[in-house]
Amino acid sequence: MVSQGLFQSNPVKTTHDEYYTQKSAWQDKQEFIPRDKQICEAFMLNSKSSSAVYLTELGFNVTWSDIDFFIDDKGDVVVSNCPYSCKKEVLLKAETP
After folding, report:
1. Count of domains for the chain
2. CA 42, 47, 20, 38: dihedral to nearest 10 degrees?
3. Rg of the chain on CA atoms, in Å
4. What is the largest CA-CA distance in the chain?
């Protein structure tokens, strides 16, 4: 069963929106991820994703837990595969200082 929502504060989250990134995809992209920054895997709330574990295994300093990105993101940069239903809201928040 898909969780009722990854984000308590996100009204646009749909029920068929969790597509997990495989470790091999993170391995392919690791050269583009800064190693000198605290990484925030901000889309783990109620998720069964292993992205944060994979990124940690690849040597990144990753913060994750029950973070609701729309209320409280942590770290220097967000590295994640956000739910597609809220990508517009994520990008708008990401460009807001």
Report:
1. 1
2. 30
3. 13
4. 37
